[in-house]
Write a structure and sequence with these properties.
The protein is α+β, with helices and mostly antiparallel strands. It has two domains: 79 residues, no CATH class; 124 residues, no CATH class. It contains eight helices and twelve strands. It starts with a strand and ends in a 6-residue tail after the last helix.
């Protein structure tokens, strides 16, 4: 999820931030760019939300700085899902032709992106490098759609550095590559949720989908 903060929210996170992070936070506020919802910290209050603000890689060192924030839920001006794949195509550089083919093949699946490609599409800053992955989010509602989606991503991964997650109903996220391996060689998978990371068996996740 993407979150935009009101003026009071930016003022509060800047006050709590480390000094070296404040110029970036002021830039984000001035441009009205969103932060990214991240896993909740231990001790987070019920009226707080944990956010992340990934900065572009340093031009010289390649270092990636990720600023962790906490904001009051009352300071959120709006929220939105991750960036739609189609909306990110114009920012995809050398991947554009192959990502366009993926987007066309995935019609109706609602693929979304996060990570470097999404941040570049949102801000116009240079995040994508030759070593970047294309992080996709896939939200299946049925077992058939799940199988079709994993097969589709597997085919296109031969031409693209695809990574990312399947998001099952209820927000349970599993690496699509790990899921593919677990289906071939039955094993538990790592499930990421807003409040925790845990191991789960395949059957429990399949049970959340329509049996069609």
């Amino acid at each position: 999820m993407l979150v935009w903060l009101e003026e009071d929210g930016w003022r509060a996170v800047q006050h709590a931030a480390r000094k070296e992070h404040r110029p970036a936070l002021k830039l984000w506020e001035g441009q009205d760019w969103p932060a990214v919802v991240r896993r909740m910290d231990i001790g987070t209050q019920d009226d707080e939300i944990c956010l992340g603000l990934p900065l572009p890689p340093d031009e010289d060192s390649g270092e990636k700085v990720r600023i962790s924030l906490r904001a009051h839920v009352g300071h959120i001006s709006k929220a939105a899902p991750a960036v739609d794949l189609r909306a990110a195509l114009r920012s995809s550089g050398p991947w554009r032709e192959r990502l366009t083919a993926l987007e066309q093949d995935a019609a109706g699946m609602g693929l979304r992106v996060y990570g470097s490609l999404a941040m570049q599409a949102l801000t116009g800053l240079l995040y994508v490098s030759p070593s970047s992955d294309v992080d996709v989010l896939f939200h299946p509602t049925s077992r058939k759609q799940l199988d079709d989606g994993v097969a589709l991503l597997s085919r296109h991964a031969a031409q693209l550095p695809l990574d990312g997650e399947i998001v099952f109903p209820g927000g349970q996220a599993v690496s699509w590559k790990e899921w593919r391996m677990a289906m071939a060689h039955p094993a538990k998978v790592i499930v990421k949720e807003l409040l925790s990371v845990r191991l789960a068996d395949i059957a429990s996740l399949l049970a959340t989908l329509e049996d069609v």
